[in-house]
Amino acid sequence: MSARYTPLTAVVLALLLSACGAITTVDEYRSSDNPISIADDEQLTILGRRDSGHYETDREFVDCIGSKVASAKVKVVPEQAFIDAIYPWFEPRVAPKTLGALRNLLANPLIEARLNELNLRYLVWVDGSTESATASGSLSCAVGPGGGGCFGFAQWDKSSIYEAIIWDLRQRTERGRVRVDSQGTSYLIGAVAPIPLLTPVKSDACAGLGGQLRDYFAE
Amino acid sequence: MTCQPPTRKRNAAHRYAALLLSALLLYGCASSSQITATTVLPPAVTAPHPGSALLWLDEEFRSANSRPNAHTSIALGAAQSAAFSQIFTAMLAELTVVAERPEQLAPGQLLIRPRLREVQVAAPSETYLNVYEVWFKYSLQFYDDQLQLLDEWFMPAYGKTPDNFMLARSSAIERATDTALRDVGAKLLIDFHRIPALEQWLYQQREQQP
User: Fold this and answer.
1) CA distance B71 to chain A (A)
2) Measuring CA to CA, which of B70, B109, B117, B127 is 20 to 30 A from A162?
3) Model confidence over A166-180: pLDDT tens digits?
4) Contact A92/B183, CB-based, under 8 Å?
């Protein structure tokens, strides 16, 4: 009897796990066909946008992209180290939002000198967030003298939408944009113990965006 | 004389333990957040303007301990004193920090007195946003070398947490306070040329330069 149920259980588990995969789409746009070159002594930094009222590009996501892009050839200045080195010009209130604002900022010789000290060639702005939709289904947990448990089923959709914009600080132009859209559904099954089956939309978005940026700079 | 069986004694002990635990839990929910700001600003990238000024940080400012609401207390004094000293030192060629109102100033010298006017804190339970927020309202009083008030400039600073996920209330407010104090530096650098009295004083200092 138990032998008959084992393959069925395996199939159900496999189906559930396969349902937890995220669908990730990466779009890219380049302003020219010229490769984005970076010399051995040059560095880049990846910064999150934090000027919006209702969300912030989270630091963990920015760090994750940094770790994907960094290699022996491409050196990445950590976000906080860069923001501190140029304080307060990249605080949320004053950070340049457009290329025009960047050009105005670099007209200040002190700021330009500090960026040259860091050998910073590219600045990558990352803007976006991961949102969860309202959960559907019903899951209830109860505890009594004889023990406790959770029963039911709940599911919710998550979506990660991020865009990276590459600014060339030497030429003071935009070199390209990469947009990633990752969506998936997570499940929580209550079978005495709650069993979460989480879709890694954010880490998929990081892998998609980070991988594309790494290819840009590794050409 | 009656003797209770051991199980009844055990039950009573369990009831007292449960009562104590509940009381502790309720106390934990109702307890206030006491935060001490420890922000240290990085050195500011700016060129100092010519001129000599005194920065007057009085005892009220140095030991400010704000209570924006019944559950929150933020000890800001040390961190905000360090932040204002550091920013004004970077922005002005000659700056002296004083704790008392000076008797007199040197000719052409400026006296700057920052004052903390208001602190507000907003939690996700109040705003339905996914962030903790902190606002400071400062006023900057500028006195000329005759110790006459030239101008008073109100300056807000704002900080928030990225989100409230897995953050205790006190750590979240501490992080938002840190961001707001960093914002003070950015706001001061932007506002410096917008303050009419200060702009006039800077113009005079530039004119007097050889």
Assistant:
1) 25
2) B127
3) 999 999 999 999 999
4) yes
Answer yes or no: do A114 and B185 touch at CB < 8 A: no
What is the token pair recorded at B32? Answer: 């206030």
- Closest residue in A to B48 (Cα) is A110
SS3 B9: helix
Return mean pLDDT, chain B.
86
- Strand-pair partners of B114: B140
Lookup: tokens for B6: 């051991």
Helix (H) or strand (E) holding A92: none
Q: What is the pTM of this model?
A: 0.82
Q: What is the largest CA-CA distance in chain B?
A: 104
Amino acid at B136: F
Contacts with A28 (C-beta within 8 Å, 6 or more apart), sequence order:
A176, A177, A178, A179, A212
How far apart (Å, rounded) are the C-alpha atoms in residues B156 and A31?
40
- In 3D space, the residue among A125, A218, A129 whose CA is nearest the CA of residue A176 turns out to be A125
Q: Check: CB of residue B192 under 8 Å from CB of residue B91.
A: yes
Under 8 Å between Cβ of B108 and B52: yes
What ipTM, to 2 d.p.?
A: 0.80
